[in-house]
Amino acid sequence: MDCCNLGSSSLLSLRPSSDSHVSPLPSKLRFPKLRQPSRVKSFVVNKASGSDGSCSENGFSVPPSRIFIQEAIGAEYGEGFETFRSDGPLKIDVDFLNDKLQEGFLQRIRYAMKPDEAFGLIFSWDTVVADTRALKLNAWKQLASEEVTSHLVDYTGKYIPEDVGIQKAILSAGADHVLQKILFWGEGESELERMKSRLSQLYYENLLKLSTPIEGLKEWLDAVCTARIPCAIVSCLDRKSLVEALHRMGLSKYFQAIVAEEDGMESIAHRFLSAAVKLDRKPSKCVVFEDDPRGITAAHNCTMMAVALIGAHPAYELVQADLAVASFSELSVINLRRLFAHNGSTFMDLQKQVVEKTPPKRKLTIDTIF
User: Fold this and answer.
1) What is the rounded CA–CA span in Å between residue 49 and residue 7?
2) Predicted local confidence at residue 256, as pLDDT
């Protein structure tokens, strides 16, 4: 059974079924070109289509240090990003998307009969879909080993400590901070750039060997496919590498939208908003699967629900999530309904505060009848 094949192309595009109303907004949106890799024509489309002409720089189609940069959370005040249309610039923010992506009349009838289809699921690539922490840690250890081997006399102090706390700091911080403030490997700007470039190369080499997703993920995706809930995946990887990794893990058919480096999003929240647009679901009806407290904060900033996967961070660091689980095997589709069951189907929808006016006081008069 081809699960989640909601459109003609299960991975590269999402075409809603003919019996559902399609909002005209997603087909007209153009996302900003914020960071274009050199010799790569960066573009963003409203559907998760692949990039055709991707040139390579240092062996990649993205800047080498992009993978090891700590992204901003974003949307702290509901702000989004600015895109450009023929009639001028257009600001896309959380309120705008929640308003413009409202369900049409036919969609509301369909979702009344099949409420699960109204949701959109957004999965973070790192540690939620794949064990990228192991890939990154191996890349750091390989880099340290190469530095010691190539500079045996001057670089004998280069190694990755086995302390769990230090390794956690290495995996959660950006490459610049790790090299200069944690490992103290800073010997000049050019040397730092060389090590960051080599670090990304090692990561991509390890990525080619990745073929197994997080335990229980396939079974969970099978369940949401049966319920016909559209799914998206967000990552800072370039689209080509991400698609190839999904193919190796056998997950291509489950995702109808991809948000990758070519989409040019500046923050974690912007990636989530871009995924909501590609799924044609308003942010307040989306559920984000994350393992990082920063990602959970970004989801809530976008008025999305957040399901935390315990593992990389302990449960007490994920208390702000709407639901925390140890593995995907603990989830069922009914859990998604319960996330939105607090105030019925309108929970988390934007509402105007009604200010009741005090009625004018009535004067009591006594009529005397003679």
Assistant:
1) 13
2) 95
At which of 162, 183, 207 does a domain end? 207
Give residue for tokens 């190369």: 201
* One domain for residues 189 and 253: no
- Whether residues 44 and 142 fall in one domain: no
Q: What is the pLDDT of residue 156?
A: 47
CA angle 96, 101, 107 (to 5 degrees): 160
Closest CA to 16 of 294, 228, 316: 228
Which residues of the chain, if any, have pLDDT below 50?
6-25, 27-65, 152-156, 343-350
Measure CA of the first residue to CA of the last residue in the chain; give whole Å. 92
Predicted TM-score (pTM) of the model is 0.72
Tokens of 2: 């081809």
Same domain as 266, residue 224:
yes
Q: What are phi and psi of 162, to 5 degrees?
A: -85, -5
In a domain, 6, yes or no: no
Helices (H) and strands (E) counted in the chain, each on its own, are 11, 8
What is the number of domains present in the chain?
2
